[in-house]
UniProtKB/TrEMBL annotation:
The keyword Transferase does not apply. One of its GO terms (molecular function) is DNA-binding transcription factor activity. It comes from Streptomyces mexicanus. PROSITE patterns: HTH_TETR_2. Keywords: DNA-binding, Repressor, Transcription, Transcription regulation. Residues 11-71 form the HTH tetR-type domain. PANTHER family: HTH-TYPE TRANSCRIPTIONAL REGULATOR BETI (PTHR30055:SF234), HTH-TYPE TRANSCRIPTIONAL REGULATOR RUTR (PTHR30055). It holds the Pfam family TetR_N. InterPro entries: BetI_C, Homeodomain-like_sf, HTH-type_TetR-like_transc_reg, HTH_TetR, Tet_transcr_reg_TetR-rel_C_sf. Residues 34-53 bind DNA. This is TetR family transcriptional regulator C-terminal domain-containing protein.
Amino acid sequence: MGKAGRPRNQTARRQALVSAAGRAIAERGLEGLRIKDIADAAGVSQGSVLYYYPELDDLVLEVHRGAVESYLASRQRAYDEAPAGDPAARLRALLHSGLPSLTDDPVHGLLYELHRRAGRSPGHAELMTSLFAREVALYTTALEVGAATGVFTLAASAQDLAHSLVALEDGYGLHIVSHNAALRPDRARELIMAHARAVTGRADL
């Protein structure tokens, strides 16, 4: 019985450390991240952190993976919860789910912080690439369905437009979490919605 319970306990402990590391990164950033910060956030000893994650980079990679999956799940949920027979509503839901709502948005702030590792780590680069591709796939589906049902008149291929929409979200989002006073969340949302209306021919988006 004890042996059967151990893997579950280890999984729970690893998940708790990943969650604690995410909080520590969001609060302190990656550059100054220490094992002590994670241990304090998790309420465990530094030795416990090192037992499960001897290499800090492995733990940071798990935080990145969890953040990517959580963010994608929230975007998929937004799309799925919009009326299935209303392509415009579904595209609107996607557009509203892609930008930080505040300058201190924890999810977006964490993702931008972790994406900084992509230039130095193949694992982080793979996660960033995967996130982009899966967001593009979501938008491509929304645009293709709208075009196929005559709701949208697309200005370019659905995939090209999807690439642009995700890139716009990433660019605007970076300015928002960087506290750029000239580009507040509401203004960024207004700009990306205007772009979406122009490329779909749908004035009521």
